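Q: I'm writing up a methods section and want to include an example of the input and output format. Could you take the sequence below and give the corresponding predicted structure tokens, formatted cleanly so I can copy it straight into the document?
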Amino acid sequence: MGTHRDTKYVASFDEVFKAGGAPILKTPLQAPNANAHAERFVRSVRSECLDHLVILGERHLERVLRTYARHYNRHRPHQGLGQQVPAPPQPSRPPAASIAALQMRSPPRAICQIRRRDRLGGLIHEYELVAA
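A: Here is the clean output for your methods example:
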């Protein structure tokens, strides 16, 4: 667990995490943006997910966070990555060369359909192209 080098975090604050088995890592000196990526994820998970759900317990929270993290890394576009995802899923469709060959042999038409999958009870929607 990372902590800021700020006077508002006292030693007893770290003890809570140590008791839970979490390691204590200090942020670098004079590096206020060292946790920017983690803080951005926390802000996203809170505003896009947790603010809209009633969490029923620790297991439920873990499941929700696992589902959201998978969505965040595999399906949600990120502006800093040119609207790409950090870890795109493995393609389940033929390579582009095969698609181009199919298009040349047949009249122009849509060869793909879009499939929508709801996550977290419909709070999040994921879309993917599937061969028709």
